[in-house]
């Protein structure tokens, strides 16, 4: 069963964007493995509390990421 798990900062995606991610990911798996995998494809879109993730030893927040733009 193909499986994808995406993690995004809480509140940064709309319901429509989550649905789009699920649809596109499913389509990608179907492109790779054929139509037979569609009913078995699992896509999870998790929302992580702001500050609940990090990189290179630093806790990331939305405010920190926006500063880097």
Automatic annotation (TrEMBL):
PANTHER family on file: BSL4019 PROTEIN, TAUTOMERASE-RELATED
Residues annotated as domain 4-oxalocrotonate tautomerase-like: 2-60
Assigned keywords, A-Z: Isomerase
Gene3D superfamilies the record matches: Macrophage Migration Inhibitory Factor (3.30.429.10)
InterPro entries listed in its UniProt record: 4-OT-like_dom, Tautomerase/MIF_sf
Protein family according to the UniProt entry: Belongs to the 4-oxalocrotonate tautomerase family.
Organism field: Rhizobium mesosinicum
Pfam families to which the protein is assigned, alphabetical: Tautomerase
Name of the protein described by the UniProt record: 4-oxalocrotonate tautomerase family protein
Bilayer-crossing regions: none
């Amino acid at each position: 069963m193909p499986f994808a798990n995406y993690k995004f900062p809480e509140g940064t995606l709309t319901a429509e964007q989550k649905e789009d991610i699920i649809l596109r990911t499913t389509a990608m798996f179907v492109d790779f493995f054929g139509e037979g995998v569609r009913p078995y494809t699992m896509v999870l879109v998790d929302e992580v509390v702001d500050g609940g993730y990090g990189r290179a030893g630093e806790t990331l927040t939305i405010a920190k990421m926006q500063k880097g733009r």
